[in-house]
Design a protein that fits this description.
- The complex is a heterodimer.
- Chain A has one domain.
- Chain A is about 15% helix and about 40% strand.
- Chain A contains 2 helices and 10 strands.
- Chain A has a 4-stranded mixed beta sheet, with no helix packed on it. A 4-stranded antiparallel beta sheet of chain A has the order 5-4-7-8, with no helix packed on it.
- The radius of gyration of chain A is 27 Å and the shape is flat.
- The relative contact order of chain A is 0.20.
- Chain B is α/β, with parallel strands linked by helices.
- The chains are: A alpha+beta, B alpha/beta.
Chain lengths: ~170, ~425
Amino acid sequence: MKALRIAAQLALYAPLMAILAYFSTEPRFSAVAPDEALVRVSFIHATQRKEACRERSAEELAKLAPNMRAALDCPRERSPLLVEVELDGKLVLRREVQPSGLRRDGNAVVYERMALPAGRHRIVARLRDGPEGEFNYVKDETVELAGGRVLIIDFNAARGGFAFLI
Amino acid sequence: MRHLGAIGFLLFWMLAASGIYLYLRFDTSATGAYTSIGELEWWFGGVLRSLHRYAADAFVVVTIAHLIRELWLGRFRGWRAFTWISGVPLVWLLYASGLIGYWLVWDTRSQFSFLATLEWTGLAAGAGEAPDRLFSLFVFLHIGLPLALLAGMWVHVQRLGRPKTAAPQALVYGFAAMMLALAALRPAASDPRWDPARAPQDVAVDWFYQFIHPLMYATSPAFLWVLVSGISVLLLLLPYFSRPERIIAARVDPANCNGCGRCVADCPYNAIQLGEKAKVLPERCAACGICAGACPSSTPFRSIRDLVSGIELPDLTIHDLREKLRTSLAAKPQEIVFCCEKAPTPGAISLRCLAMLPPAFVEYALRNSAARVRAVGCEGECAYRLGMELSEERFAGRREPHLRATVRAQRKNNEYSFVLR
């Protein structure tokens, strides 16, 4: 009986070993086809305030506690962020992103991924971070993307706006 | 198959031991991690790395098999609900620990899994920022989450008396040898170094942990959330959906309980607490009667007319058992048979579990005309976990209440036979 148990154990180990060995790496997976490249639009940005700061009058300041007498009254809420991406003249992304936080005073977070055929592409990225008006950041560039490569569309206002990272 | 839980513990300790060595050799920075793993000597560090990976994969297989088996056997309701519910978060912790462990390698597979997880959780933006700080977080989580898993495993077995957290020696050696053989025959290897400009193509996915990523790309992050949350909630609520078995819990008779604590020590579900006297927690009681078998007052030799034990089942008392035995003995049979009700035997006196039989009943039968006594327990795994084990210890004289030396016991599989010496 004991010998039978040991034999049964050994008989179980072999298929378990095979399952562990195979499924720990196989079958392989591709999220993007071999002749495609990937564009990732990925950034975080704190947009402009929805309403401009206002200077408090002398009467208003007098009504406040001495330690609260800030000269400017700045509403916390930030504007929604509007982002567009155009690929070879075709609009592929247009999103209005609300700032995070209960009072909408945090960062706006943008993430999108899109696959496109490998080759030469004209990419235009536009962003508006104010309450209204035209896009205040635009980048227009033609890039060469090989199959299996990633283009990251990053945004950093302090560094001048959009950056296309290949 | 009944040792799946214990094998889970074994794999955890294998992972902890191999992980400690790997951590000693590991460069905990985004720039140095990949190289430090590549520099492990193949004959020791490499084998331990492979062992770490395959033990983690085997942990998933064993955990899921354990879950399915307990589900199949209906062991999730009533007195088992706590153990079942406390097991569900462990699956989450196991997956979180394993997925983050893969990110530490900092190869393209890590990249694929990390970005896919961020896409799933909606935290993808800014992923490329501050990689060293991010890497420190990975390391912290890969230590913290397994520790939380261990704490959860401890909680998971709290409602079990004598929990089986150590597998039998033969199984330990066999499993360890299998894992080492696998590690030596098919060493784990890294994919190319993490490269933000490389798209997720031809990724060597570990399907035990990372199957959620291809599933998300085939469906959507929202679908994956619904699926994972739905399965988790369903598993958590399962004990409340199904109709519980009708249980009449064991009852303590304070006049006959001397507070010896034997029932507390033998209860397979920790359903008895000991103050001055024993106290049964009805919601944890399985009504297996093992406590009655352990009680020193459960002896048929007592001369009182209405035999009451210190602890017993109200619907199958020790007095009932003695009356059944006396009725059987009145016919002067050659043999008296006791059996567990899960192993019905014709003509036998049926018990809730074999360990409900106080050894004094065997001697009583032999001293009152029976030439032989047989006791039949569950075939294979005991329905109440410890029945066969406790009976064996009591009949072999290693546990109180023990069978007196005047009786010779012989075991064959799930059956004992007794004669007077």
